[in-house]
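Q: Predict the bound structure with zinc ion.
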Amino acid sequence: MSENEKDLTIESYLEFLRNKKLMGTKCKDCGAMYVPVRKLCIKCNSTNMEWIEMSGKGEIAAFTTITVGTPFFVEKGYGRNKPYCFSVITLQEGPMVSGQLVGVDESKPDTINVGMPVKATFLETELKGETRVDLGFEPI
Ligand SMILES: [Zn+2]
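A: Predicted complex:
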């Protein structure tokens, strides 16, 4: 099945992620791009959307260091003594997407800067016998 035959659903988006592809959708009418997937263009109300692969490159728009994590991050060993960093990234293609920031010193947030160039990385976690893949970012 080719990429563009896949349904424009979050399930397909997550399946692409498991295959280490960051896919968004592009409006064929006005060119707006969305990550994750959207079926409806919020700029021009078109439903004429197609999948498009993102470069994964972008820059940090915002970030926060988290010491009280969600159950998923607690299970991964993060917490008060091992904070993790969550970021919002502006992709080169324009869409903004969030994900864990890795490859940084979470204990020294002043070494992390808005505007820092990053690239996508695919974070694998073994959870209850299954491999979960989450979108993350790391400095280039
Ligand atoms: Zn549009």
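A: The mean pLDDT is 93.
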